[in-house]
Design brief:
The protein contains three helices and two strands; from the N terminus they run ββααα. It is mainly alpha-helical and 90 residues long. Strands 1-2 form a two-stranded antiparallel ribbon. Strand 1 and strand 2 form a beta hairpin. It is globular, with a radius of gyration of 13 Å.
Amino acid sequence: MSRTVFCQRLQKEADGLDFQLYPGDIGKRIYDNISKEAWGEWQKKQTMLINEHKLNMMDPNARSFLEEKMTAYLFDGIEPTIDGYVPPEK
């Protein structure tokens, strides 16, 4: 059975994640408030950020940089700046 959440990113009821995909309090907040759709969108942005900045995910600074971008994107609606990437017009 799928869960429904009110997605803070999309501002609508949508399918919630099946389980907590991110550790700690932020992970719980994502699980409770972010839809599968919004998480999928973030995953694409995250990949672009990792590639653009050549992030080493073993580096704590890289992880905190991404976490900051992730929470800004998911909860504050702030698009990450990715060189050469122009988000599609709505």
